[in-house]
Amino acid sequence: MSVAIITGASKGLGRALAEALAARGWDLVLDARTEGVLTDAAVAVASYGTRVEAFPGDVTDAVHRAELVAAAGKLGGVDLVVSNASALGAEPLVRLEELALDGLRRALEVNVVAALGLVQEALPLLRASRVGAVIAVSSDAAAEAYETWGGYGASKAALDHLAAVLGAEEPGLRVWAVDPGDMGTDLYAAAVPDDEDPRPSPTSVVPAFLRLLDERPASGRYGAPALLEER
């Protein structure tokens, strides 16, 4: 049985991925900061009949990260780590001249440092898996210059680079940075609360992530919209 760790799994893309993997028979270790919402998500995911362990906590906490990996080990190992938990740095987003440095530090800690810390913790189990993979959830803001997205985009660009280097250093793994494209999530609503234009549901991009797991292309950066168009 395959085992995945998914951070930020209580809602949005994280929960959608968890449900899709559970439907395929994956056992899961889920993380999020808000206990009640995470518990609700875990109950829904477990309804697919797989084993689900949920741990509320902050991914910037090394003890919490170790807890996640230990739980996965008890389920049989780690075949996939999905770094989906993200921090914006400011809510709503602001121009760089107004961006609080503590907010930028928070974005870097959550989006980059914690993501690497979790992979470091899980690396022995990932290497032991026949299909070990890491998914770093990226953003279009990592590659394009959008006003007010500077702090968040910089953190995601750093995550992309870490993923690229990890892929070069760990040829036995697959390491994919994935830009999911526009989605209607609470994170986006917090970033740009005045934007009321409809956006795709996170569930609509999940097939792109499943395609990566099915086809296991080379490590690298991928865009979910392009993966969906090529099907």
Summary keywords:
globular, 47% helix, alpha/beta, seven-stranded parallel β-sheet, SDR_fam, 231 residues
Could you report the average pLDDT, rounded to the nearest whole number?
97
- Give the termini distance in whole angstroms: 27 Å
Order of helices and strands: EHEHEHEHEHEHHEH
- The whole-angstrom Rg is 16 Å
Tell me how many strands there are.
7
Inertia-based shape: globular
Question: How is the largest sheet built, in terms of strand order?
Answer: 3-2-1-4-5-6-7
Q: Percent of residues in helical segments?
A: 40-55%
DSSP helical segment count:
8
Q: Which regions are unreliable across 5 or more consecutive residues at pLDDT < 50?
A: none
Please summarize the sheet with the most strands: 7 strands, parallel
Tell me the structural class.
Answer: alpha/beta
Q: Indicate the proportion of strand residues.
A: 5-15%
Family: Belongs to the short-chain dehydrogenases/reductases (SDR) family.
Organism: Streptomyces prunicolor
Keywords: Oxidoreductase
Protein name: SDR family NAD(P)-dependent oxidoreductase
Description:
- Keywords: Oxidoreductase.
- Pfam families: adh_short.
- This protein starts with a strand and ends with a helix.
- Helix 1 (12-23) packs parallel to helix 2, helix 3 packs parallel to helix 4 (101-128) and helix 4 packs parallel to helix 5.
- The longest helix is centred in the middle third of the chain and has 28 residues, at 101-128.
- The protein is globular.
- It is an alpha/beta fold and 231 residues long.
- Strand 1 (3-6), helix 1 (12-23) and strand 2 form a beta-alpha-beta unit.
- The mean pLDDT is 97.
- The protein contains eight helices and seven strands.
- It is 47% helix and 15% strand.
- The protein has helices spanning 12-23, 35-46, 62-75, 101-128, 150-169, 186-191, 206-215, 224-229; strands at residues 3-6, 27-32, 52-56, 80-83, 133-137, 174-179, 220-223.
- 46% of the residues are buried.
- A seven-stranded parallel beta sheet has the order 3-2-1-4-5-6-7, with helices on both faces.
